[in-house]
């Protein structure tokens, strides 16, 4: 892994909000990776590293002590892996956002972590500036899956989805009204709020309201889970995607 100092001076009002330091927890069993991440993130004055862990077994206690906004979580660790740690964290009240660190674009563990509530993932060889951007986006409530990566995930999910998952997803999606269903499909296609607003002739604020209602109705944590559920339910196939 090649690390360079990145980030530098962050602009005030990043993503349209007054900036306060983003509290970040680093979790990776490789001390060199943690050192590289810490060095890289240290150049961003809108971010504070509040702790480091070498295994998923340490994460819950560290989260209680440090109250991070975002956890950068390695998926493969020897005692408690990132998948199990993500599942444990995301069922907690006021859980931090989680970005999974992985060496593969899409595999079963990454998919399971996303289904459990991770906000997205980044590859370990991702350029430093892009990892910083991912942390900032997740802290601002945005997903970190591009439409291209979403399509890769969906293609991988096609080989792992069971009939029972399709039936369960369809039952859950049936609770949405027509407008919410349209918004859910657009989220599944990887569209931003602005793109959805343009496509469906509504304001961005209305799109955000629909997304919030979808999350509440379906008991989901984030847009990534909406995307995966719409795929499981077959909504993207019906829409020609």
UniProtKB/TrEMBL annotation:
Family matches, as InterPro entries: CheY-like_superfamily, NreC/VraR/RcsB-like_REC, Sig_transdc_resp-reg_C-effctor, Sig_transdc_resp-reg_receiver, Tscrpt_reg_LuxR_C, WalR-like
PROSITE patterns referenced in this protein's UniProt entry, alphabetically: HTH_LUXR_1, HTH_LUXR_2, RESPONSE_REGULATORY
Gene Ontology molecular function: DNA binding
Residue numbers of 4-aspartylphosphate PTMs: 74
CDD domains for this protein: LuxR_C_like, REC_NarL-like
Coiled coil (UniProt feature): none
Keywords: DNA-binding, Phosphoprotein, Transcription, Transcription regulation
Domain HTH luxR-type as annotated: residue spans: 169-234
Statement: the UniProt record of this protein carries the keyword Hydrolase: no
SUPFAM superfamilies reported for this sequence: C-terminal effector domain of the bipartite response regulators, CheY-like
Any matching Pfam family: Response_reg
Response regulatory domain sequence ranges: 23-139
Protein name as it appears in the record: DNA-binding NarL/FixJ family response regulator
